[in-house]
Every structure is written in C-alpha cells, then in structure tokens.
Amino acid sequence: MITLAWPWMLALLPAPLLARFLVPRAREQKAGALRLPFFAELARAGLVTPGRPAWRLTRLAVLAFIWTLLVIAAAQPVYVGRPVEVPVEGREIMLVIDLSASMAQRDLSLARPMDRLQVVKQVADDFIARRAGDRVGLILFSTRAYVQAPLTLDRRAVRALLAEATIGMTGNNTSIGDAIGLAVKTLRDGPEKERVVVLLTDGANTSGVLDPLQAAAIAAKENLRIHTIGVGSDTGEFVPFGALNPSSDLDEGTLRAISGLTGGKYFRARDQQGLAGIYAEIDKLEPVAGDPQYVRPALTLFFWPLGAALIASFLFAAALMLRLPARGAVPAPQAAPDADAQALPVAEAR
C-alpha cells in the first residue's frame, strides 16, 4: 500500500487560495482607458491580444495542478511492501563432534544398521534446523581438531558441512582437550552468557596437547557453557560378541567434570531416541532467541510527483512563451481616425 510519511504537509494545499483572498491586492493606478479604433488590425499583427477568460481559467488550473504535485511530493509518499521476517539474533552455539574410529560402532539404531556418526548427523541436523536466530558453528575432531564451519546464521550451510563429515578425517584418536581449546578460541569474542559449546564424544582423551580439564577451566574463565554428551550403548546387543561393552572407552567422569566446571550439563545417549531427547533438552536449557521480528520494506515515491511537477512547469512556461506578442513598434495610422469609428478597449498585453 501507499502511505504518506508527512501527511500534515497536505494542509498546504489551500495556501494559494488563502493568499489570493487574504493578502491585500496592490494598489492600482487609476488612469483612463486607452481606446483604439484600429484594435482589430493590431490583434491581427500579433501586437496585442484580447483578454480571454478561458485562458485565465486554464492557467489557474495548471498552476493549481503543479502546486498539488509539489505538496504531494513534500508529503513523502512511500510504498510499503509486505512484512518480511527478520530472525532475532540469539546465542552462539558451537557443535563439537567426535570423528574418531570408535564412531563407526553400530549400537545406537534399532531401525536399520547405522554407525554412531550417522545417527549423530541425523539428530544434530534436526537440532541445527531448530536454532532459528542463533549463530551456529561446527568443530570436528579426532587426532586433530579443526573448524569445519565458522559461526554463521546460515544454518543450511552448517548442515551441509556436517553431512560431509566422515570418520577418521583427521585421524583415529580422540583429542577432547584440543577441541575444547579451539572452541574457546572461536567463541572468545562473542557476547557473554550467550556462548554455548555442545561436545559429543564416545571415548576418552587419547591425543592432543591440551588436557580436557585445563581446557574446561579456560572455558569457564571465558564464561563459556559446555554441555557434554557421551554416546554409546551399555551392552553389545548390536555388535558381535554381545558380552562386550561398546562404551567401555567412554570417560564419563571427565565429561561430567567438564560440564560442571563451565556451568553446563552432562548427558548420556544410549540410542537414537535418547540422543534426540538430549538435543531437545538442550533446546530447553538454551532456548532460541524468540519469535522473529518483521519489517515492511518501504520505497519512497516523492520523485514521481516532483518530476511530474517539473515537466508540467516546463510545458506551462513554453506555452506562455508561445503566447507572447511579437515585439515591434505599432505602425502609425495611414489616415486620421474617423470620429464616428467604434473604439475598442485594449486588452492587457502580457
């Protein structure tokens, strides 16, 4: 729809009419009227023109039209479009996911054979999709840790990069401390109390330079919350030799200590449904920014009536120039005027 930014400017529309009736006219010099018996000849020569009421009305109409266009332009007409959703920026969340060799275990899914990483991808993908308004990043680690996706509002890009992750991309060991240290470095410049790390692993720290608890202490100083998730079933139901425990390498004590030092929470995921419930619980602990805001794009239109007023002014000025009488001296009469000749009043020459 079209609206006016300054609608009160429309009050200027009757200003010329008020000026015409309220401002006193200039004093007219009283003089006798000049009457010419040869007025028709002067008019044919283009030296004078008789007064025409129709032209005066046309002139007033054109001037009123131009004034109206100028007032509308001054009122700033604006075209307002449909509301556009603008997500409210919320938390900065860094997902830190283990890609070590043990993530190839198939003990989390009952529906169909899938390794741990495939299950984590599916559940984490849904979690990322729900984080509207948050900046989400992705760190993958095994022997080494690296930033797969920097913090961004483009959740679709993060989900695509997560889908490309494969087991053993950077080795087969587990460097939990280095992964936490890299997350702290990436989130250090973000707003306090809005920075969250979600660390998922199925093992213990077996590689890297930084000890996991030392890294957690650094994160606590930087006011980062770390939620830790340990994955893996408790029995060997889905692996050969069922007596084996596929989660025997999981260091739950260290994961609890990491989350406790940073004000986060430790979760244990024994199957796909449990992992999905954990991410839903993290959604409650770290709620999204809220309902998105809406803005209506506005396009100013004042230049249209302003341009029309300028064009009308140029055309009106050209019309006035064409109506001006040709310059030159009035020719002297050939003979003395006849006393009985009818005298005509001279119209005002412009």
How would you portray this structure in words?
There is one protein chain. By secondary structure, this protein is of the alpha/beta class. Helix content is 37%, strand content 17%. The protein has helices at residues 15-22, 39-44, 53-74, 116-130, 155-163, 176-187, 212-221, 252-262, 272-285, 303-323, and strands at 2-4, 35-36, 77-80, 84-86, 92-98, 135-141, 145-152, 195-201, 225-231, 266-269, 293-295, 298-300, 344-345. A 6-stranded mixed beta sheet has the order 7-6-5-8-9-10, with helices on both faces. A 3-stranded antiparallel beta sheet has the order 1-3-12. Strand 9, helix 8 (252-262) and strand 10 form a beta-alpha-beta unit. Helix 6 runs parallel beside helix 7.
Task: Please render the helix and strand layout as text.
Layout: E1 2-4, H1 15-22, E2 35-36, H2 39-44, H3 53-74, E3 77-80, E4 84-86, E5 92-98, H4 116-130, E6 135-141, E7 145-152, H5 155-163, H6 176-187, E8 195-201, H7 212-221, E9 225-231, H8 252-262, E10 266-269, H9 272-285, E11 293-295, E12 298-300, H10 303-323, E13 344-345
Parallel strand pairs: 5-6, 5-8, 8-9, 9-10
Antiparallel strand pairs: 1-3, 2-13, 3-12, 4-11, 6-7
Helix pairs in contact: 3-10, 4-5, 4-9, 6-7, 7-8
* Beta-strand residue percentage: 15-25%
**Shape descriptor:** rod-shaped
Runs in which pLDDT lies below 50 for 5 or more consecutive residues are 326-350
Distance between the termini: 46 Å
Chain-averaged pLDDT? 81
**What is the helix/strand order?**
EHEHHEEEHEEHHEHEHEHEEHE
How is the largest sheet built, in terms of strand order? Answer: 7-6-5-8-9-10
Largest sheet: 6 strands, mixed
Bin the helical content: 25-40%
SS elements, strand count: 13
